[in-house]
Amino acid sequence: MQIWPLRFRDLDDQRTILADDSGAYFLAESGFVDRYARDAITPPEERFLREKGHAFEWAGDLAHTGFLTRWSRRQHVGGGSAYVILIPTLRCNLKCSYCQVSRAPLAAQGFDWDSETLQKVLGFLDGLPVEEIQIEFQGGEPFLRLDLLQAVAAFARRRFQRVRFVVCSNLQTLDEDILAFLDSEDVLISTSLDGPHQIHTRNRTADSALTKNFLSNLERVIGLIGPARVSALPTIDMDDPPDPEDLIAAYEAFGFTSLYLRPVNYQGFARKSHPAARTSTAWNAYYRGFIDTLIARNALTGRVMEEFYLAHCLRRILAPGLDGHTDLRNPNIPTGANAVIDFDGQIYPSDEARMLARIRRVNLAIGNVSDGLDQEKLALLAPGHINNFDPDCIHCPYQPFCGTDPIDDLSRSGRIDVPRQDSWFCQRHLAVFDLAMELIYSKDPAVEFTLSRWFGLETLPDALRPIAP
Amino acid sequence: MIPLRLKSECDRTLAPFVTRIAEEEPRCAEDATLWSEEAGTLGYQTGQIKFRLSDVAPAEVAGDVLLVDPRRQIAHRLIRAASPHNTFLITEQCDQLCLMCSQPPKPQHQDMFDHFLAASRLAPTGAQIGLSGGEPLLHKDALFAFIDAVFATRDDLCFHILTNGQYFERADLAWLRKHRARLLWGVPIYSDNPATHDEIVGKPGAFAQLSPNLALLGLAGAALELRTVVLRQNAPGLSSLADFIARHLPFAATWAIMQMERIGYGRMNWGRCFFDSSIDFASLGAAIDLMRARRQDVTLYNFPLCTVPPAYRDLAARSISDWKQKYLPACATCSLRDDCAGFFEWYREEDGFMEIRPQ
């Protein structure tokens, strides 16, 4: 019997999480690693490893073939569809304290696509080798240039077989034309709701009347297109985070069943006004407390609110193929089909990359709409976007579920080769995956209730929490 | 029941032949056209041959591919044009004796491949044809040659082959790869416990043979449908089997969990095998929950909708072939009837599901 290499990490004093390269995990008491390292595991442990697919007898037997399949499905292979972020304008009618894109003032000149740029953007989209696309409009505030959104939408609906639009809007102002644009099944809204009125005001609008406008606009949009096509996320200011109960209540009030807790991104204005966003300790503690509150509340009310990111990480632990969320996939090789086109026609591999260029930290543009993609730069960026061979990640049981974020590493440390454990991305994800594993192995009925509902199951199968004998 | 055999009058001295009932004008030499229509009897002509069909209307057989057996005065409806459930019975021989077998094996084999080839060439465009038995791969060389010959002229067709998986070899890999897009392999696995599986299929060592052969299908990238009839013998182990499938058979395209068919050995062993999932769905639910968490496809075959808890009903397919499917008198008022698999023709209420409740 040959055992596939196992990585391990202590969950607490007594228990260790182990996983192989295919993402098959199990829990063991801490003595297991010692026996594994000394090649002295017991016969019952051997049988356990064989049954759970961590071992095989000969290359090509069923256990071996099953493992190869599971391993290969853990690797993200793109190609079928595109996800492109467009910035038709960098101007915005708000000035949020944590604005990660360093937005331009409402009256500023030279921060919108001109008609030539629009044509070139359409040409770029036309050249993508896909028939399915999701186009996300970011800003600035995209609805300031509804005309550009309409032009892109009309083109994309002709060019692609399947298309979806997400408008990331602050919903601060609505008019009849905007409402008409929203009145198509292929248009979704993503907006920011930072929680209770006063916190939303402090973070985003600086004016209670503007917050009131936003809240009534959100209600109107949900009423018009239904809650399924509207999502919202709160950005959490760690200097004064909202009480979790209040935050959840604010989301429930609008009928949301999912929210996505987002830390202030250490980009743009936030670098000066939110220096605490640079480190992860406070965030991880708040996040854990928030999840505890959420789970207890779900059990109490019988209604189920989801925290999207934790649910996503949990689902990635349980099964391969959940690569829809661009922040967490591996490999995540930059291509034109997963690009950001800025207000000036520059093309970036990610939203964060354009933010770094904006503050002139480093220019990570991978081309522009006039000259096309810069293949040399793409090739240079590619190796940083895979975690399989990272000298730290190869020791981590969470590697198969995790990803990379070299752009964030650059933003915070000025380089991409910092030891993983020193990076915000790694610290944040170790904390999330530790929490996820604790929850999977929890026998607390409240936890089981929330997890089974998040997974869409009637009960939580014991086979999801294997424990070595 | 829809008849699969029709009474047919024909010159008894003729050899059996395959013909297609032309829907309008004949499209090839094998097509038969209607030349007489009397009370209860239709007269057809193909080439110089004339034959009659009894007790059927022209519209019911239009487009059907028939194997006419003059000696026995029977026409086998090899392909019914209007049905998605067409199956060629490759052989009645089998090396396994499954407790619930609906088609008990017979010792002798009659080679029908020439007729099946002729029929396949006349099949409707894009048809999926079932190949079943007995165990079709007992005649593997002839079967593979037949499939090659069909695809040589009809690469629009595909086959759904039911096999016990005992007869694949490493040397088949290239052939399996070549046809992977057009062949769906339905292979039964009843338990991850070898002793339980072997007991159910009545063959010691069957699981040990099945296991590496399933790996071959995986390595070939073949489309694999795992099939598990739920029985009293294996119901308690379904969760464990689900875990086995998620870990060792992740390449399976789907897992079909099936209810028993009360015919053949299934009728003989009904009392000791039938598992009444209408009063105990727990083991099935746990197995399905695990497959859902692992994002692997599951389907329920032959489960009337009212026997399945609402959370799992979307998995229950209308799986029972049209010619042997029925509803019960109680179903007359049910709002789910149109989406329901219903029951096998040979299902009996007195020893069937306890909980049949029109919705």
From TrEMBL, chain A:
PROSITE patterns membership: RADICAL_SAM
SUPFAM superfamilies: Radical SAM enzymes
Keyword Ligase in record: no
Protein name as catalogued: Radical SAM core domain-containing protein
Gene3D superfamilies assigned: Aldolase class I
Cofactor field: [4Fe-4S] cluster
Ranges where the Radical SAM core domain occurs: 76-303
GO molecular function, one term: metal ion binding
Keyword annotations from UniProtKB, A to Z: Iron, Iron-sulfur, Metal-binding, S-adenosyl-L-methionine
UniProtKB/TrEMBL annotation, chain B:
Domain of life: Bacteria
GO terms of molecular function: catalytic activity; iron-sulfur cluster binding; metal ion binding
Keywords noted in UniProt: Iron, Iron-sulfur, Metal-binding, S-adenosyl-L-methionine
Keyword GTP-binding: no
Gene3D superfamilies tied to this protein: Aldolase class I
InterPro entries tied to this protein: Aldolase_TIM (IPR013785), Radical_SAM_PqqE_MftC-like (IPR050377), rSAM (IPR007197), rSAM_paired_HxsC (IPR024032), rSAM_sf (IPR058240)
Cofactor field: [4Fe-4S] cluster
Protein name as it appears in the record: His-Xaa-Ser system radical SAM maturase HxsC
Species this chain originates from: Pseudooceanicola atlanticus
